[in-house]
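Dear colleague,

Thank you for sharing your sequence with our group. We've completed the structure prediction you requested, and as agreed, I am returning the results in plain text so they can be pasted directly into your records. Please verify that the sequence below matches your submission; if there's any discrepancy, let me know and we will rerun it promptly.
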Amino acid sequence: MQTASKKVINGWAMYDWANSVYSLVITSTIFPAYYGSVTGDGKDNTIDYVNFLGGRFVNTSLYNYALAVAFLIVAVMSPILSSIADYKGNKKSFMNFFLTIGSIACACMFFFDKGHLNTGIITLVIACIGYWSSLVFYNSFLPEIAAPEDQDRVSAKGFAMGYIGSVILQIVCFLFVMKPEWFGIKDDYLPAKLSFLLVGIWWWAFGQFSLSRLPKSIPAGTENKKNIIVNGYIELGKVWRQLTSMPVLKRYLFSFFFYNMGVQTVMLAATLYGTDELQIPTANLIIAILIIQLIAIPGSYLISKLSTLIGNFKALMVCVIIWICCCIAAFYMPAKGINEFYLLATIVGFIMGGIQSLSRSTYSKLMPATKDTASFFSFYDVTEKIAIVIGMFSFGFITEITGSQRHSVLALAIFFIIGLIGLLWTRSVEKKITNETL
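Please find the predicted structure tokens below.
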């Protein structure tokens, strides 16, 4: 196949521009800091508890559990939704639905305050479901618009566009939070609330632009004989059966399951770790996240280049080894160690975008030629989401039983080590198959 026109490629990449503001503002910076402020007592070295649905939780653990529930819902839904989208060729409709409910949920975070914890948790869960469900369909467009030899480059372009777009809006939100007097704002909570509202508007508006450029998918079938729910899992079963005859792809998914468990959990829990455990001031935390975003842009391209020089698996192994070192460094990092935090943010930023981009394109290249791209990416997505569920629940649980998030961070290094072993195993199988075919 030939890679699609520049207009289509740019339109596809613009959805990263649209949705990445959720990742930065809601997942990584302002919302977690705001959540910690709203649910905490403002005192250092104390454990803050909240009551939710009749239970009493450490506030950071409740945050982690809420996200884990959201990812579990996505994991259950995505095989059903993607099989329908493949069968009827309506990926764009599903993508539009989820980006819309996600953006509305972000906008509704405006109403989250000390007296409305339920609002904060519910909108957090819905926004997470909308974001990640939309990515199932977005990612599945990659093998349809880019030839295999161009998929690393196109995937990296999407992540780069996402970092640029999210940084632009983050700077605007940063001004709201740090210089509210410039805008005549006197309410301490209003700057953060306005940021959530802007995220919703930005995500939806640019998402519509991206959808207008994406091609219409070709239906994989014309007659649906099965019950929708049953058919969804039948499609997932078909993908699994195909994987059993593709040892390289199967082993790659095993390793991806573990190292991505670490990557995504770090990204989702890092802000609360910085504010509550390391006691990093909000202003410094936002600066560190901006460093991560800016460094991630060249990082995603350089790691893509590295994969061209040494191969995808070796490049991924380099990234995973660096992640292991980062977890160990975070465990030993002193409280209020702002300079050390900046240094760690720089390293994380360099590998964060690269490992995600390269993981996506590696999977895309290992996939067989098929019309059912959404079902294959659904399997990838389910693998990713179940890993996140385990990662977030374990992070919250270890925090509750030890009273410290440091032990949770150190435990993540174990996931990365298993992922590294899996990549070594995958590469050895690939080399063996290559030698047998020569």
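Summary note from our side: Residues 255 and 419 are 4 Å apart (CA to CA).

Kind regards,
the structure core
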